Amino acid sequence: MSNLNLKAKSENTYDAIVIGSGISGGWAAKELCEKGLKTLVLERGPMVEHIKDYPTASYAPWDFAHRNRITERMREEQYIQVRGFCNEANSHFFVNDKDHPYNQVKPYDWIRGYQVGGRSLTWGRQCYRWSDLDFEANVKDGHGVDWPIRYKDIAPWYSYVEKFVGVSGSVEGLPQLPDGEFLPPMEMNCLEQHLSISISAAFPERKMIIGRVANLTRGLTDRGPCQFRNACDRGCPFAGYFSSNSATLPAARATGNLTLRPNSVVSEVIYDKDSRKATGVRIIDAQTKSVEEYHAKIIFLNASTLGSTFILLHSISDAFPEGMGNSSGQLGHNLMDHHYHVGAVGTHDGFRENYFSGRRANGIYVPRFRNIDAKTKRDDYVRGFGYQGGASRGRANASDKIGVDLKMEAASLGDWSMWLGAWGEQLPEYDNKVSLNLERKDKWGLPLLDIDCEWKENELAMRKDMMNSAAEMLESAGLKNINTFDDSKAYPGLCIHEMGTARMGSDPKNSVLNKWNQLHEVKNVFVTDGACMTSSANQNPSITYMALTARAADYAVEELKKGNL
Fold first, then answer.
1. Strand, helix or coil for residue 162
2. Burial 408-422 (b: 16+ CB within 10 A, else e)
3. What is the DSSP letter of 62?
4. Are 353 and 338 in contact, with CB atoms under 8 Å apart?
5. pLDDT digits 0-9 by tens, 137-167
6. pTM
7. Mean pLDDT in the chain?
8. Which tens digit of pLDDT belongs to each residue from 14-27?
9. Sign of the alpha-carbon dihedral angle for 99, 103, 107, 113
10. Rounded distance, CA 175 to CA 50, Å?
């Protein structure tokens, strides 16, 4: 009897539990801690301390044994991750695919980072608000269900998070891409400026702007500014870009209300049928495989789209035999990503006297210009796409010269080149889905995920326009040697913008979450990562996750104070 811990439940009880420490989980932790809640953050991966655990951040190219190329070991152990932008410099921030398997019913690239900070350490940092063009799309064209919110509901929360994140960008007054709270924008180089002017002249409905990015062009408190090293995916010791490790988790820790437990694989949310509430979560220690329970009044799922969905699907009880909150049958369905790896590239033989300085950690952006109004409506597909890209000037190719002549030629500059790559919206489709594979288990004894997702006719039709429109914009600026591209092996998941599977909606019969990101059926459980998304728009989604998380946390605390949770 003396060996029993009779205080285990009280010792493992908090006001709030946050599952996941990535972009949305970090925000949930910050908001809940700053509002006075004792908050436990559970992260399935190991600890990563800001600065200390960025081992390659200051490496020069010659410091890498393989010059920052993908190694044979990576191809063997990270065979899915290397299809993204996993390389020798950042591979420690991506999972070992052998240790974290899943089942691809159709080809799907699940790119993951299991560590404190999650993929906030390696994200692309592009920050674009949605507009009502996006929030109203489902109801207007009949795909999916209507969003339960509109731009006015989230606009103040965009402003709230942008001021803390630090987003550099330019004010443009575009209705389809609302302006935000911006730090000074980065500058386009000479060819980008030329292309921007040419696009506006040739295509009045189109506009090329500098990208809006979470890199600090001016320091914020003890963060930044950006050093223009363009080594962001290794972890930034200068805190020149936003991450959980450099920004939200330190803010949460400063309150004294944060408890962070890494190496915690959450297996399920515990449900009490009498109170009709969740009482806590059950975890498996990633190292010892021991099982523990933690308890709280409110629970935020921020384990990533598919991670949060797995937890809900695996949270089975008499009340929810098909997964917690799944009476609608929509949990796991309507999986979306952005389709990309399509566009055009060309060269320009002008601006011979110009070059660029530094390594700008950003590119350009062409906001959506299709299906905005009657003038821009297409008959072959719905929704739209935007472009990212950039111009640069490399060295000339060395020929068969030797000695001094070879050195002179290798040191000379080549032509300017410009690429435009499109990011397109994927429609919500019920049969693009994930489910539990009860026949196959991982190293912790948990079911694998079956992922069954593919591009449909709308995406494939859109890609033709994405490619051809890129080429015609380059042509308008006098670029030559234009080559279009469309990678047929750019499968869903590769864009790392997975969304959906626990969508928001007004009707519990066809959605999983309400307008506050609450489970319709379990009011003290909130899902504010990509799983909550009802459609995908075409903009990078992370700033929207952050805004939804801050909004939901504010609501949750107020409801807790009122005794409603």
1. helix
2. eeeeeeebbbbbbbb
3. G
4. no
5. 999 999 999 999 999 999 999 999 999 999 9
6. 0.96
7. 95
8. 999 999 999 999 99
9. negative
10. 38
